[in-house]
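Support case: T4K complex. Customer-provided input:
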Amino acid sequence: MEKRTKPILVTRSSLPPYEEFAEMIRPIWDTAWLTNMGDYHKELERQLKAYMGIDNLVLFVNGHMALEMAIQALELTGEVITTPFTFASTTHAIVRNNLTPVFCDINPEDYTMDADKIEALITEKTSAIIPVHVYGNFCQVDRIEEIAKKHHLKVIYDAAHTFGETYRGKSAGAYGDASIFSFHATKVFNTIEGGAVAFREEWMDHRLNCLKNFGIVDQDHVVWVGGNAKMNEFQAVMGICNLRHVDQEIEKRRLVTERYLERLEGTKGLKLPHVQKDVKPNYAYFPVVFDGFACSRDEMWRYLGEHQIFARKYFYPLTNEFQCYEGHFTSQTTPVAKYIGDRVMTLPLYADLALRDVDEICSLILGRA
Ligand code: T4K
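Agent response - structure generated as follows:
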């Protein structure tokens, strides 16, 4: 096979037509209103609530600050049960709120938190569960809700990967006390950088809006130790434009995903993703677990790289293996997550990935089978 010169990266941002964005930002030059909850910010919030079919949502500058401030708003204390099979953000948000993450193992089917292992980790210090709908795979939301109710725990879902998805017809934003979304450039729906908290109880609206603006309630009152996590007007415009096209983008991702499945299904030693029952998927990622394949995940990762195909090892290393947590946490307590983390690789997936490029990637992989 000829070596390609133009690399294929793990993803590529979706952008609206340039004119659409340019036309919408023009009025900003008249108003000079750039940030601090402007008209476009309000409009995007309104449109996202309608799109997700939910009542409560507050925008943030990114998904990470959405999670940090959801934790702060719910006044979590002590220990939080979470997963190490995730992006750095989930664990860091807990630690940066001065809380202790307690790592629950994942299940080997969809890589979300193994709900059967949660209760054994609950102590008198536990205040919440923060599971992750990793790769857009829904957690066992019913089981988790049951456990949370029984032990009076809060639940915040890290739904960073789950935009546009529903489970039994309800948006990912409708589960738990709160769910956070990421609208980063690499996500199915992006606002360049961006994020949101969707939540169950209306009182959180005021608190989250204050927290993201330094805890200021009005010019005379600063009530919380907040920070600055506001989405600006340019981000909001990108969101409004991208939202018009997101369903088509998801449909294109479906075609790419199905091509991968068609080509790779049945290959010995490759575990492929599948759509969960009752879930309307968004095809955010294409994780493949190399388990019993002719070469290891790392060998394949290097081999693809030599051919200018830059897959990623999301999510390796596990967060409980990070250097910054050395001496505090260990992956020995989460053996399934460790096993998957050492073998998983996400293949390039984005709306405009050409099917012939998918074929090329698959041929490279199958050539080593
Ligand atoms: N929780 C979970 C479970 C998450 O996965 C994330 C973020 C968060 C919370 C926090 O949400 P944010 O605060 O980020 O909103 C990327 C993203 O930066 C990050 O948002 C995402 N998860 C994570 C899984 O992936 P990196 O360090 O791998 O990104 P980077 O710069 O290597 O980009 C990956 C590829 O994306 C590039 O090879 C090409 C493409 N790309 C990238 C950028 C920046 C584009 O096409 N356009 C771009 O502008 O973290």
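The radius of gyration is 21 Å.

Case will auto-close in a few days if no follow-up is received.
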